[in-house]
Amino acid sequence: MMDKRKILLILLAISAILTLLGLGFSAYNFYVFDKPFLNSTTKGLLSAFFFTLIIVSLGLSKTKR
After folding, report:
1. Residue 60 CB: number of other CB atoms within 10 A?
2. pLDDT in tens for each of the 65 residues of the chain?
3. Of 26, 20, 24, 21, whose CA–CA distance to 41 is shortest?
4. Alpha helical stretches, state H, the chain
5. What does pTM read for this prediction?
6. For the chain, which residues make up each domain, given as ranges?
């Protein structure tokens, strides 16, 4: 059985992987197609990652080891 701590850490890992993947696509578009790096998609991706980071850290602070 998975406890709450493990679920939150898996959620954080998935969020980090998706954020890095999205930033990789933004860097690709920046270098190949000369598009701006910090567009609305990149800003939304980063804000969603930091929101997940805050939620997970609050959840982990309330769990027992």
Report:
1. 14
2. 788 888 888 988 999 999 999 888 888 988 898 888 888 888 998 999 999 999 999 988 887 76
3. 26
4. 4-33, 40-62
5. 0.78
6. 4-62
